[in-house]
Fold each of these.
Amino acid sequence: MSITHNQEGVFTIVSMAGRFDALCAREFKSVISLLLEADKKRIILDMAQVNFIDSSGMGALVGGLRGVAKEGGEIRIAGLIPEVHTIFELTRLHRIFDIYETTAAALAAG
Amino acid sequence: MKAMILGAGKGTRVRPITGTVPKPMICLAGKPVLEFIIEHLVSQGFDEIVINTSYLSDAIESYFRDGSRYGARIAYSFEGALVDGALEGSAVGSAGGMRKIQDFSGFFTDTFAVLCGDAVIDLDLREAVAFHKKSKALATIVLKEVDRSEVSSYGIVEVADDGRIVRFQEKPRPEEAISCVANTGIYLFEPEIFNYIPSGVEYDIGSQLFPALVAAGAPLFGVTLPFTWLDIGSVSSYWDAVHRLLAGELRGYRPAGEEIAPGVFAGVNLAMNRDNVTIRPPVVIGGSVAIGDGAVIIGPTVIGPGSVIEAGAVVEECLVDGYTRISGIATVKQKIIFGGHCITPQGNAITIAEHDIGWIIDDARHKQELSPLQQALMELAEGL
């Protein structure tokens, strides 16, 4: 798993790749903490390269969303591959996140 | 009359459903495709049936046995060998399978039918036989018009005005198709057909025998009759087949079980409080199923026997295999849950074990142990 981020206007795009498991969950949490410390709280998660998510990954996403929302920010999710989207649906996570087909769509949503 | 059913294929295009079940044993609303075919054949006067088997042959042979409970006499032509205690298939092709039976006993002595084991039909076979005899055909193929976008899944034929078949195309691209008339895998033959099928070699009906008949100028005819044809050649056609079956397209079909509400059929030993569950038909529920309070079941849906739909779960347009547990937090929409996989109607599959979703969907007989994190996610989702 690798996590990188870059700024697009008011949004910070966090790009992830590989397996979103327990190992990655720790890295993800620290990235979110650093962004919040830098007052970057409008976040788009580009998950197009994520091919797997387990319950640790889902827990980290929910934890991240809670932390960001507490600071008045938001997390948008973009680019889920069908397999990962299915898991979002099964667990109803798709109801708590704003999900967009692409990063561009997430950016354009205002 | 005599018939042969082709049951030896591996069903690679229906994977992962055919990982554990041979294609003819795939169930439509709880009943194997092959059982539909046998019952239909018997109703049309075909009561001496040989089924060739190879891949997962036991599943077929132990289910139908000698056919007496269907009012038929059924035997099997196994294609393979017992090697080190395990059955190994060695398919000889569809025409090769016919030839093997004929070489074995001379079984085919008069006009006979050969059907693929992967489609449910309500065809008037007597009418097809009448056409076949009137045409003095050596072989007759039952044809069906399909949508041009689907031709690449089928053998396509060109038929002359007199009903003779003049050309074949195997699974053409839509823009190259010579017609939209498809071979349904339902054939009628005269025993003289064996003059055109070599012994002891792999030989296919669609791609070898029929082109050879055309080349030889033998009387090969096609007949188009109105009938429902629910083929399960691929995951998406399987999905469509169940939907069409539940929509009532197959003549004479009624789901098994008791109709507990309009369009809702259930087996015995159902653990469900009907006042606390929302069900929208058509829904077919197998025996010994438990459905918890607050669950929502939206049809067309099939829930296999022994399954547990926990309180609060939402199951919408799903084909759920037997012994499946669906967690109360789950929203399962347009999925096939089968053999440890969660499959979309397009055939994309995720493996339940690999993707760590056993805490949401699992075999109902597994002992369930949730990690603290899964427990927390469960509680979160319950509020959604």
Amino acid sequence: MRWRIVSGDRPGHPVATALLLVLLVALAFAPFLFPGTRSVAAAARICIFIVLAASYDILLGYTGIVSFAHTMFFAIGAYGVAIPLANGWIGWDAVLAGGLGGAALAAGIAAAIGLLSLRVRKIFFSMITLAVASLAQLLATQWRDITGGEDGLTFSLPRILSPAFRLLSDPVLGVRIDGRLITYYLIFAVSLALFWLMLRIVNSPFGRVLQAIRENEFRAEALGYRTIVYRTLASALSAGMAAIAGALMALLLRYNGPEATMSFAIMVDVLLMVVIGGMGTLYGPALGAAVIVLAQYYLQPGLQALSDAAGALPLLPALFHPDRWLLWLGVLFILIVYFLPAGIVGSLRRRSRA
Amino acid sequence: MTGAKARPDWAPYLVLPVVAVLALPAMAFPTWLTLTVAGAAMGMMLFLMASGLTLIFGLMDVLNFAHGAFITLGAYVAVSVLGRLAGLGAADSVMLNLIALAAAVLVAACVSGAVGWAFERVIIRRVYGSHLQQILITVGGLIVAQQLVIVLWGPQPLQIPKPAALRGSFIAGGAAIEAYRMVAVALGLLIFLAMHLVLNRTRIGLLVRAGVENREMVEALGYRIRRLFVGVFVAGTALAGIGGVMWGVYQEIVTPAIGDEMTILIFIVIIIGGLGSVTGCFASAILVGLTANYVGYLSPKLALGCNIALMVAVLLWRPRGLFPVAKQ
């Protein structure tokens, strides 16, 4: 009965359940458990990337199609919030209109790409999303008047969310109740709600049809499901969710630019999160997001230490240079696709079933 | 195959001349000639880079997202080779200049092919049959390869010394035509012809074409298509390396992102041409090159999206590309 709220979709293994509960508690009380601007920002990043990775999983894990435009949708949401706020329309209505408008635009673009490419071949979808994403990246850097070009847009938030705002004059449990904290809890609440919504969606009849199409497209089609329509809807849904995650990112950073939300490195991160956690489990990408965000905070200093330790040896310092962290993420990615294709949660599930 | 007298499909062959003729009234003739040669040269280089990818896909249903890494590799090898042969490249002799370029092309082809062979063994061999895993693993391979290039050659853009004789341009029909573009066109045509001959006149080519049409049938007849595929993969990556040399020398500057930028164009080319079709790849590469040059001249702002618009238009007209391969 307790699992009904998430449509009976259990993590599937006591270890996975425990990890997820720890993650949930840690995120829910992050500002009190880990005070400090840097760690609260890390927690907020984890929340946002949970939504981003989970929405990508709807596509990759539940529908079995690979998109390279997910960061484009992420960026559309972020620009949706950034553009009105940076142009002096500072208010809740601007945040709401920007975020939802961005989500609607993202879903529309995703639907158009889906209808055009999925009609032919699944693999076209991957190639075309790559092309469209690169076009969007060019647009974002070139269209200076609107997007601020490479420099991006810096803006201030509605008063309640700005760091200078104090809700209570006295700290609670040693933590100041200021705009930063309110921003964090806004991000946490929206992320939690979206994640729950996605859990409900993938376990709905609609989600089951997506999985049926992933497993056997021909049979699903023969049963009378219009696979293109379902896949396109999944793609639009996933894009809309990514855009809302992007809007949250803009609120967190109070800035948006091509590097912050659109870079290929973020796309790689998202792929890693989903694959490490376990494709098609939704809980897995949530764990994956936490792992990768934390790793990023600690990988670069670790590489610096290795690079220094390698000292005067040839080539090694270059291999462990902190800017080469993407190299190691790539190696990790290949190893996981080889040796742990079901990811953390998928492997645990398999073990508990055996 | 239906009936003995399938009606020949002429429409895709008309696309190229129609685009070229449509562009003519919009500009003066010498400009048109310059742009057409530039477009054809760009198209030839695109063809070099894309032909391997389309064959690899057609034969084994493998889409290699890391193909761009071999372009980058080729371009960087050219930097090293032409840097060593600076004396030959700067010499006042067309012959010596061409030898320097040919050396770069050969070395790049060998290096890319060798790395391609290793890549097939280590990365691709284990994920046959699963598109999802292929895309994931080749993206991983792409990231690693790209970062290794940065480790070896550094992250900063590098100059490629273009051989002296190929720097200038000459006047023909009132239009200035860059010498290097003619070399690119000649090399592209040569390789297209060689490929055409190998595919249509040799036993191996016959097997490759048969494999593209129906892999199981060829295997059932006792041929080891896996071995054939390794050959095609190595040849395809070697061609990507050659394309990387030509494109890098054309740009005269190489950055670690050079392969990624081209990958997107190459995907557009092979989608338009019809996945698996070499003729389609050739025609669509030139189509993309011409359109990019015409639109870039007429309206530079639209140049960004014109390739994607072209692809959308072709897909709406012919969802399987201009020259669809018979299977499926």
